[in-house]
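Appendix B, record 7
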Amino acid sequence: GVQRVLVQSCASLLSISRNSQVVEMAVCPFESTSISRDGPYSSESACPFHQVQHVPPSTATVLTPVKVNIVAGTHTKHRDSARLLADIGGGDKIREMTTRFYAYFIKDQHLKQFRFETDSAAAHGQRLGDWIVQKMGGEGDVWSESGRHDMRQVSHSKAWNSKNRSRELRGRRFNVVDCVVWMRVMFLAGREVGLDQHEVFWDWFVGFISHFIAVYERRAPPYTEGAAEWSEKEDNVLEYKAGGGRMRDLTR
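Structure tokens (predicted):
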């Protein structure tokens, strides 16, 4: 059953043959979208990728709304967002969400055209998660210190020019549909790791995504709240999964 799959995911390593050598890849349970919302928390073993034991979300103690800190048009880390990060369980909780996000991203019939790196959802999620953690503050410059400083724009340029895109679209920047699909999947991932249960974080995160999505498509921010609400409806999520990762109301 689910628990058996979870134990196998957490306790074992996936062996991949590459150039006659065996490379061991650690598997995070959040990479499996077939595991239920509570499944990854039922194991007492440490996640072999993140090297921590995934634990359920803690009860919120930050109850006062936290604003996205924008100074002269630029997002700036603040002690309030750092305190909020600690209250949700720290950066590991963000990385759970971003790992889950990329588990869907890789399968998504629209988003997968932008993929240009072939490593795991957990590896992708580590990079994005570190970026969000650094933006929130309180755990150091984990993204910059990982060697990814100034790489965000480079990565998105590679996504625009991905060989997985059709020739006529290759090189085009993200449009509104691209952004809405991306946001829906991100908020779905957040719900599946329980971050929607922390009302203050969830409100802050919606605002955070709204601010940054405008960097890639200035018309996208008004769609942020709707994208967050999309995964509230179970029918939407079930249809998305049954359709093999396709949002039929947005893409063909």
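Remarks on this record: The chain has ten helices and four strands. The first strand starts at residue 13 and ends at 18.
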